[in-house]
Amino acid sequence: MRRQRDFCIRQFRRVYDREAGKFTFNISYETHTKPTPRSLVVAEAFGLGIDDAQRFKVLDAELKIGPRDIVYITGDSGSGKSVLLRAIRADLGEEAIDLSDVAVDAEKPLIETVGATVEEGLELLSKVGLNDAFLFLRQYNQLSDGQRYRYRIAKLIESGKQWWLMDEFAACLDRDTAKIIAFNLQKIARQQGKAVIAATTHSDLAEDLKPSVLVRKRFGEEIKIDYYPNTLATECSLIREMRVEEGTREDWQKLSSFHYRGHKVAVPRKIFRLVRGDELCGVIVYSYPPPACFGRRLVLPRMTIQELNKQLSIINRVVIHPKYRTIGLGAKLIRETMPLVGTPYVEMIAVMAKYSPFAEKAGMRKVAEQRTVESVSAVSEALLGLGFDLQLLGSERYVTGKLGNLTTQQVERLKEAFAKCGHPRFKKEFAVSRHRPFGNTIDYLQCIQNAELSKLSKLVKLTGLLSQSKVYLFWSAT
């Protein structure tokens, strides 16, 4: 026989204590099940009163929660955690949002579905650990379970609601990912002054979620509530298991596919890696500095290339495994390796630094922000005149197709624009000696004249890269 639907009797009262800044939830919650022919037979066989057999008191508690508290409800399956969460959700009404209620557009790239502007969307996605240029362009249905969870938290943030509720919190995720998400969730909520109420059977998230209210719900009426100071957890528990050590080019190659820029790097000065046991978690590559770059003259006097190589290193690449992002590992890698690289000065030019200040957290100083490279503007104008869409210069397929449709005269016009520019990054593409990695003007001009379309394609993509807004950061050992 089909089981009859359960029905509930509850008493629920919320009172605001103005002095304490807390809501007191007085909850008494019972479930009753409508008797069925079979349940009547069982009750009679065991000598049970049918009313007692069908009535279960699952909750009787007073819970004090402030609108900025982090509440962690844990306990065995079937102990009443979800009942408690639903009761609170019903009382809060429009003040709250449940993770399961987040609307998802699975057919659009993530960057199209979060934030009112591109900048706002990038900032929101970066906050939750989806700070990978490739992920910005993926659709929701192309994400892993952990990435989907992070995305839905970004939507919680965007909602502007005061109370964030989550049943079965991170239950479907591996425990490392669950701890990382718990750490980031409490950090974001506390920074924004929001409340989190998370319920789960897992009891291993207390250190990273660092709740101000911990509720342990057991079967029947048994419930234990502890209150703690509402303070930020400043370090994810997994970081204690990690160490920084000298690495190799092979380490970089293992993680290079997770970096939004090219996998090819110049001759490295030093490579360091971040490991957890035998797992590679991150890599940083230091290289020799280019002859010139924006921002440098604001912090250093003019030097010969020999002096620069002796005094200055540049952070060429920093990449963290996607699983471990947003727990401060980028800052850890930079902070712990700058004193080991062997030069008194370190510089870094980064696009992502506009949205994630990881280098500043590591001790670097933001010196300048460049909207565009002035010397490259003429090349951009030439590309516009030839019908190129500057927003698509990062697409090799698009650039190759456009170049293939140019006339001989149009190709010559483009070569002339590159020849007049002579940016060091362009010259580097035609360097013929490892002793002069940034080439020279005579070789560059000759190579431009003889360049095939495949080489011009690389220069066009470089134009798109150099046209991006970038941040110049600097560190001094003294």
Report what the structure shows.
By secondary structure, the chain is of the alpha/beta class. It is built from 18 helices and 16 strands. It has helices at 37-45, 50-53, 81-92, 118-127, 133-136, 145-159, 175-192, 206-209, 249-255, 305-311, 329-337, 358-361, 374-385, 396-404, 408-421, 424-428, 441-450, 453-466; strands at residues 6-17, 22-33, 55-65, 70-75, 96-98, 163-166, 195-200, 213-217, 223-227, 242-246, 268-276, 279-287, 312-320, 345-350, 365-370, 470-476. The strands form 3 sheets. The protein has a 7-stranded mixed beta sheet, sandwiched between helices. The chain has a 6-stranded mixed beta sheet with strand order 5-6-7-4-8-9, with helices on both faces. Strands 1-2-3 form a 3-stranded antiparallel beta sheet. α7 (175-192) links the parallel β6 (163-166) and β7. α6 runs parallel beside α7, α14 packs across α18 and α15 (408-421) runs antiparallel to α17 (441-450). The longest helix has 18 residues, at 175-192.
What key attributes describe this structure?
Aminopeptidase; Rossmann fold; disordered N terminus; single chain; 478 residues; 6-stranded mixed beta sheet; 7-stranded mixed beta sheet; 3 domains; alpha/beta; 18 helices
